[in-house]
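User: I'm new to structure prediction. If I give you an amino acid sequence, what do you actually give back? Let's try with this one:
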Amino acid sequence: MSQSSSDNRFIIIGGGIAGVSAAEAIRKSRPEAEITLISEEPNLPYMRMSLTRYLAGEVRREKLFLHDEQWYLENHITLLLETRVLAIDAPAKEITLADGAKLAYDKLILASGANPRVPPFPGKDLKGVQTLRTLEDADLILEIARKKARVVCIGGGLLGLEAAGAVARQGADVTVLEGLDWLLPRQLDARASAILKEKIEALGIKVIVPAMTKALLGSEKVESVALADGRVLPADMVLVSTGVASNLELAQSAGLKVNRGVLVDEHMITSDPDILAAVAALKDGPFCVGFAAESEDLERHGQEKRERKGVPLLVANIGHETFGMDDNELLLIDANGSHRLPRASKTELAAALVNELAARLVTPIARS
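Assistant: Good question. You get back a string of structure tokens that encode the predicted 3D arrangement of the chain. For your 368 residues, that looks like this:
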């Protein structure tokens, strides 16, 4: 039985892995559907999680893209690049683009992800202050890092450490600043973090903890980083990795219920039954909290944890593998599937995570 034309127009806002996966799933189940995928970026949709690997030289630029242009044509997916959505009119079931055009939908999927959260440092808008969110960001960071630049990385979380290792591999002189008492404060205890710090410093990356950034200094371009304790660190580039904030503006314009994310049910349906959200918060309990929960095996493991204990699963994406860690179990997701490591103490699990992370950061950099 064919679907009615009133339920055939799908618009997906966001050109990342979530948006493209949604388009793939719709096309597979609905061959006749009209699918429009909208991205603000000029590039074809790509694997954002691999940007640090691209920075490190582990992945060629062309390998980042999820599909080539021909794939979208063959699958009859209208791809609108460099296109910004200004607002959603939920009662009218249409969106407004930056150029004033309006597009009607029957079902709308929000997959716009999040943007980097940059603290309000004095000097945060200076040239040379970077975040890593887009492929264009990565290209600019690479251009600077390859000049053997002095790079200060603010943020000692997973993304900050991956980015620091990547730019160090390109020949940059790297210093990592973490405002709390140790690296990976959300993942590791002090003892495990100290081991990780030693391993990172052995690679030639300087680490300062705790380090409170007071200001970024320079006239038009960043020249140094002033710390609260009076130290001033020279910098040709400052790479800020201090968390992300969900893109909620469109959801709010549609009158959807939001918290830190868009509120959804177990089927990812928002408070409007015709709008779904690919990155969201469950109404009735913790979502899979952590990093890179892309594997179906990992998602299932997270669901088992929530049903059994109501405890969020900690997830970390490291190189080619994904780890999920809870109180006394470590789940490893790699190209060969999922593997549960033996039950062990939290300290032992933290040590395992530390060793794997350190092994995947960078190879030692030879400096002339």
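You can read the tokens as a compact description of the fold. Here is one thing that stands out. Residues 65 and 111 are 17 Å apart (CA to CA).
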